[in-house]
Each structure stands twice: as structure tokens, then as C-alpha cells.
Amino acid sequence: MDTKKRRFPSGLWRRIVRSGRWLRPGLGVKRWVVIIFAGASFLAVGFALFVLDIYRTVPDTWWLPLIQAISLQTLPRLLRVIIFGGIGLLIVLGGIYGLNRALLLPFHRPGHDVVDTIETHRRRQFGPRVVAIGGGHGLAMLLRGLKEYSHRITAVVTVADDGGSSGRLRETLGILPPGDIRNCLAALSNDEAMMAQLFQYRFANGGGGLDGHSFGNLFITALSGITGSIEEAIAESGRVLAVHGCVLPSSLHDVKLVADIVPPHATQEVRIRGESRIPKIGGRIRRIWLDPNNPPAFPKVVQAILAADMILVGPGSLYTSILPNLLVPDITAAIHANRGFKVYICNVATQPGETEGFTCGDHIRALDDHVGNDLFNLVLHNNHYQGKLLENMQWVSLGDDADIGYPMYMVDLIDENEPWHHDSKKLASVLMDLYQARTGPLAAP
Prior knowledge:
- The structure is a single chain.
- The chain is an alpha/beta fold.
- The protein has 2 domains: 10-111, no CATH class; 124-437, Rossmann fold (3-Layer(aba) Sandwich), CATH 3.40.50.
- Helix content is 46%, strand content 11%.
- 34% of the residues are buried.
């Protein structure tokens, strides 16, 4: 006699285990299973009373023994309850599982487990409220990493851009520059595949009047004409790209960036008007401001900052991406009023024409000189200086002046392929760890 125990087929056991994953905490599934089970129980009681009534009133004919056999009357009552209850539970759970798969099939991405997708969505849905302030490549890179941890992200971008496609659209149509908005929407897109690539597509030379324009800029511009406002155009663009979070302009006013610069090999300051012209002059930027001065902030930006759990400033061009946002007085006042976790992310490399020769302390002093001090709880700084930088770039080191007035956290943040940029995954992971801990081991300067 074979005494070996029969085992479940491996495929069946895996399916049973995987089905149990639907009951994980945090998926928001168990509550609906309980409701469905309660409804099914009431239906079962009603059906059982109906069957019992038939059973008690059925005449003593040839099919009475058949009914007795189907109802397992020869078995104890408790055992019959367990058998029928178990069969019903398996049928209900199987139906729920099949219905969920059928409903989620249109949204299921190949290679991604449905349960894992739902669990990730729920975790991000209740992630921290994050406001990221900046512009250009730095802000888009940061958002690309943050969206893996939270869906409650607000990106605040400058409206002082006047170069390239954005500048031409701004000059000819009088709209806010859409370039940084487009980059942030693409970075926050749920699937940076075809639609995000289409948004970033730039028409090459030879396209006539479309030379140098990006499709996303034209799309946002067209939507602003249809909806009547740039904020509605941004919201509609976000829906097209399946964006979780939102992108907001720092102000709805038409502002210009103006700077006083001491050019190379000169002693006299010159005044430069226009964000795109400032880096081309080179030299040392002494002061920068918006014209008209003190523009009102977009109200939704102030609301987002006041409600934020974490406020991130940078990385990005110090004078042409970060400061134009902070020079809006309402934004700076809202940051001061916020009691959340406020971090300045220092650039890993200097930027030609803006911060040549700058240390981390120079970045902080420039911010303090323009918008006041005590704006942050922490300064996050890269301490990995390996890799080849582009021409005229240097690593942003801590410098000789170790006391910059803020706690420092130093860690490897560079992108191995482009060491002059942060790595989005490294940066987001460190920020989330710091947010969770709120008091991490601060590196000694």
C-alpha cells in the first residue's frame, strides 16, 4: 500500500497562494469582500428557507430520496453546514477573483502583477504631500523619482522662461511659457512611453514655422486657447498623460527676469533682461529680481505649500530656475509658515554662466541674500566626486566655509551615466528615508 502523501499540484498551490494576496492589508479589497459575503449570506438564508419549505412539504414520491441525498441528510448537521458553507465560500471568492480580473484587464500592464499594481497604487495614493520647487531638467528628474513613492506631488515651476520654443510662444501668443510645465508633466506621467515621448518631441529644422517647437508646448498652447486658461490646459494635459499629482505655475503674471552682472574681465555691472540671456553673459551675478516686482503667487501654489508634508527646493539652475520661484513673495512666506520637512537639494556640478566656481555654501548664501535665511530644515549635498563632467563644469564641493547655517546630509547622489546630474532613484530614496526618519545621521562637514 502506498503510504506517500499526495501533494497539491504546484500550479494549483501557486494559484491558491496568489489568490490569498488579494487579502493583503492596504489594498482596500477586504471591506468589499465582507460586504459581498454579507449580501451572499442573506441570499443564501433566503434560498435555504425556500428549499427547506419545499423539503418539508414535498410528497412522499420517488424523488424524495434524491432530495435527501443531495441535502446530505445522512450526515450530522454541523458537518453539512461546514460542507455547504465551504462550497459557497469558494464559489463566491472565485467569482470575485474572476470579476476583478475581468474588470482590471483593460488596465493591466503586461509583466506587472495585478495585486502588486493595486498595492503600489494604494501606497502611493496615501504617500506624503510633496511640493517640489524649481524648473528645467533638475525638477523633472526629481519628479521622476518621487512619483514612485507618492501620488500627492505638486510641482511648482517658474514662468520667467523666455528662450527657445517657450519664448517664441510667449512672445507671439502672450501665454505663460509652457516648456518647464511640459517637462514636469512628462516626468510625472504614469507611463513614460509613447504619449510622454510624443509630448517631448521637438520639430527639427526644415519644419517651417514649427522649427524648434516641441509638440507638448503646442499642445498646451492649443488647450489654453480651448479652455480659456493655462491652468485648465495643464490639468487637461495631465489627464492625457495619466499624471498623478499636478504641475502649477508659480504666478499667472507675465514676469521677466532681470539681473545685475559683472562680466568677465570687467569691473562695472551690466543689467541683463531676460532669463535666456543671463547665462550667456557669464561673469558674477550680483543680484536678480522679477519685473514687475512682487508678483502675486498662483493661489493653488500657496495652498499646496501650506498643506505640504515635505517641501523640496532644487536641484536646478540657481538663478534662472530656483530663485525666480522664490522671488514671488507669497511663495517664500508660505514656505516660512509651513511646519513640514523643508530640504534644499544642492546641485552636484556648477553651471557655466551662472554658478562657475560655486561651492555649496555659495549656493546657500545666494539664496539667503535674495529671499532671507531659515528657509530650510536640511541641505542635501552630494559627496561623490567621481566621473567625467562636461566642459567648463566643476564639482560643487562643500568648500572651506563649513558653517553654512543649516544641517547637512551628504551622500552619493550622482547619475553614473551623466555625473553632472542627480540620479532620480537615488535622490528620491534618500529623501523618503530622511522624511520617514526626520532625524537621520547628519554627515559632519
